[in-house]
Design goal:
The chain is mostly helical. The chain has 16 helices and no strands. The two termini are about 15 Å apart.
Amino acid sequence: MTQPTPTPSSAAPARSRRALVAWRNAIFAVFVLSGLATATWVARIPGVRDDLGLGKDPSSIGLLILGMSAGAILGLVISSLVLVRFGPHKAMFGSLAIAAVGTVVLGLGSTVFHAVPVVAVGLILLGFGNGMLDVMMNVEGTAVEREIGKTLMPLMHACFSLGTVFGAGIGAAAAALHVSVAWHLAGIAVVLVVGIAVAIRFIPREADLGDEVEAEKPRVPFGDRLRAALSVWADWRLILIGVVMLGMAFGEGSANDWISLAVVDGHGQANSTGAVVFGCFVAAMTVGRVAGGPVVDRIGRVNAIRITAGMGVAGLLLFILGGPMWVVVIGTVLWGFGVSLGFPLGMSAAADGAKNPAARVSAVAIIGYCAFLVGPPVIGFLGKDFGLLNALYLILALLLASFLAAPAVRPQKERAAA
C-alpha cells in the first residue's frame, strides 16, 4: 500500500531545483552533526567514568545523564521561541555552538580537573544546545520536505544515526589509542562549529522560516495560541501515537547512553569493545532508517511498527541474556532495527491530515524527546538496585506497549476507508 507523501507548499516562493537540493543537503548535514555531538559523549562514558573514579555504580553516571536531560528538556521548551526570535541561521548556529562548548567543558572536567561538577555543567550545556537544535532541525526538515514534495523525514533521521555511527567509530578509535577524553572532545567541538557554520549558508533566509517579521500578518494573541497548542492533547489518537514514540524513543535513548557500559560491566568486555558494540547499534539504526521508506510504502506504517517493535523485543532478550559476544552483537543489531522507525513515523502520523499539524507534531515530539532524554537516568537508577542488564527489561515492556498502540499511526486515508 502506498503512503501519502507531502505536497509542495503553494505559499512557498519558487526556488530552483539546485537551491532545494542544497537546502535539503544542508539539513542532512545538521542532522549528522547533531548525531555526532550525541554519540561523542556516549562513546566515552566508560572513559569519563574512569577519569572521575565513579566505580561500578551506574546511578552515578545516571545522575550526570539526568543533568544533560534537564538541559535538553529546557532546550526543547524554549527552542520555538529562539527560532522565531533569531531565525534558523543564528538559532541553529548558536544551539550547536553551545553544545560544542559543553563538549569542551565536559572533556576538561573529565581529564584535567577530574571534577564531577565541571562534567555536569558540560553535560547541561551539551543537552541544552542539542535539545534546541533537535526541534529546529525537525522544523526545517518538514519545511524542505513540504517544498520538495517527497517524504524525507526517515532519511533525515538516518542522517542523525549516521552521525552517531561516526561518533561511535571515532570514540572507539580514541579509546583504543588511549586518546584523552579532553583532546577527543575538543577536536569534535571544532568539527561541530565549522560544520554548522558551513551548513547554514544553504538554508533560506525568509519570513516563513523565522528570519524576518511580516508586519502585515496580524499577531495571534498569546492566550489563543496557548489554547490551540493545548487542545491537541485531548485527541486520544495523538496520545497513542505518543505511546508508540515513547517506547521507541526510550529504547533508542537508553541504548545510546548504556549499551557501551552494559557491555563493559554486564558482559565483562573492554572499553573499546563497548564502543564497537554501540557502533553496531547505531549502524543498525542507520540502515533501518535508510531502507525504511520503501519498506513502509510496501507494508504500511502499522505493520512496520509492529515488526520493528517485535525485533526490538527479541534483540533486547538476546542482549540481556547474553552468552557469547556474537549473541550480544546480534541482539544489539535487532535492538537497533527495532527502534529505528518509531520516531520519524510517529511524527508523520501526528501531522497526517490534521487541522493543527504544527501543534500535534510538537506534542508528540515532546513525548518522544522526553522519553529519549529521561529514559537513560531511569535505567541508571534501576541498575543500581537490580543490575544494569536487568534494568533493560523496562525498555522491553515499553516496546510491547508500542506494538499494541501501533494502529494509531495508520494514515488518515486508510482510516477513512476502513
